[in-house]
Amino acid sequence: MASSQADAQLGPPLADLQVIDLSRLVAGNQLTMLLGDFGADVIKVEQPGLGDTLRSWRTAGQDLYWKVYGRNKRSITLDLRRDIAREALLRLVSTADVLVESFRPGGLEALQLGVPQLHERNPRLVIIRISGWGGTGSLHERPGFGTLVEAMSGFAVMNGFPDREPALPPIALADMVAGTYGAFAAAVAVARARDSGQGQVIDLSLFESLFSILGPTAAVFKATGSAPTRWGNRSPTSAPRNIYRTADDQWIAVSATTQAMTERLFNAMGRPDLIADARFTDNSARVQHVMELDAIIAAYFERDDTKQHMARLEAAGVTAVPVCDVGDLLSGEYFSTREVVVDVGATDGPAVAMHNVVPRLSGSPGAIRHAGPALGEHNEDVLRPIMSDAEWTELMS
C-alpha cells in the first residue's frame, strides 16, 4: 500500500517523457496515444492546412477517429519542406526522448532529417520507424498499408468460414498491433538510453507485428506441411467453441475448452449421456467430430430464447455470453460499473465517448486529459519559446 501511495504522489509514470510524433494514420497514433495515456508529452507534428489523415475520417460530421487516437497530444503544424520548419523540429528533437515516423521508405532522408542528422542533435534519441514491411528484406522499399499486411501475413486466409473467401478484418488490426508493440519498444529503449546515453533506431514493421500474434503457425507448418485454414467460429484446437442461434434470433457464444467445462455444458443441456459418447469423450475426439457435436448443441439452443438459456448456463457455471454489439454494451451494466468507456471533453466540439486507459495500474494510473486537439492548437505554446521573434514571424508566414 505504501508503495502504491508513493507512486500516485509521483504522478503519471511517463510524465518526464517527451515524444515527437511525425506519423500518420493508425499505427503511429496508437503508439503515441498509449504513451500519452500514461503521461508522456506527445507533440504531434502535422502538415499545415491538412493535418493527420485521421482528421479526414469523419462520421456524423465529426473527426471521431482523430479525437480518440489524438487524445492527450499537443498539435503543432510545420511544413518540413522549409528550412525554418526543419530547424524548429531539430530544436524540439534536442530535448526529446522519442521520435516516431511513418514516412514512405526514404521520406525522412529526403527531408534531410535522417538518423545521422537527428542523432547529431540528440545522441540519446530513440527513433521509431514504422513501415509495412520493415527496413530490410526484399520488400523494404515498397509502401504498405495494413490491409496489404493483413492479406499477406496469413491472417486473412485463417479468418472467415471454410466455404467462403478469406476475410480481412473490419478494423485497422495490423496498425493497432504494431502500435501497441511500438509503445512497449519505446519504453524499453528509453530505459536503456537513459542508462547508456545512447539512443537507437526501432525498426517496427506492420507485417512482423501481425504475424507474431498468429500463434505457432510456422511451427505447425514445419511439423505437418499444412498451413492453417479457415474454421469460421470453431477452433482447430478445442471443442465445443462456437456461436449458436437462439429461439429469439439472437446468438450465444460458448467456449467449453476444458473437460470440466464441457461436462458442465452437457449437463446444463440435459444431455449427460454425451459425456460417455465415444465421439465426445475427450477434446481430441470432440475436435475430430466437431460437425456432429455442433449440430447437437445448435439444436439445443434453438429451443429457448437467449434469456432462458443464459439463466440456465450461468447457474451451471458454463462459460457463455450473448453476442453483443456496441449499443448493447454501452447500455449494459458491465460497461458502466467497469467504466470501460468515458466521455472526454474536446476544445473544438462536443465531448467524445472513447475507450478508457488500458491497462489499469494501481499505483500510477494513466488518464485521458483531453480529446484530440484542433490542428495547430499548440503552435504558440510549443514553438514560440524556442524561436526568436524574427524566426517566429518567418515560421508562421
Low-confidence stretches: none
The CATH first-level class of the largest domain comes to Alpha Beta
Q: Walk across the major sheet and give the strand order.
A: 3-2-1-4-5-6
Instruction: From the alpha carbons, calculate the radius of gyration and give it in angstroms.
Output: 25 Å
N-to-C span: 54 Å
Assign an overall shape: elongated
Oligomer: single chain
Q: Mean pLDDT, rounded to whole units?
A: 94
Structural class: alpha/beta
- Tally of separate domains: 2
Share in helix? 40-55%
Number of strands: 11
Largest sheet: 6 strands, parallel
The DSSP helix count reads: 20
| CATH topology-level fold name of the largest domain | Rossmann fold
Estimate what percentage of residues fall within beta strands. 5-15%
CATH architecture of the largest domain, please?
Answer: 3-Layer(aba) Sandwich
- Per CATH, the superfamily of the largest domain is Crotonobetainyl-coa:carnitine coa-transferase, domain 1
What layout of secondary structure does this protein have?
Blueprint: H1 2-10, E1 18-21, H2 25-37, E2 41-46, H3 64-69, E3 73-77, H4 83-93, E4 98-101, H5 107-110, H6 115-121, E5 126-131, H7 146-152, H8 155-158, H9 173-196, E6 200-205, H10 206-212, H11 217-224, E7 241-245, E8 251-255, H12 259-268, H13 273-276, H14 283-288, H15 290-301, H16 306-316, E9 320-322, H17 326-330, H18 333-338, E10 341-346, E11 349-355, H19 379-383, H20 389-396
Helix pairs in contact: 2-9, 9-10
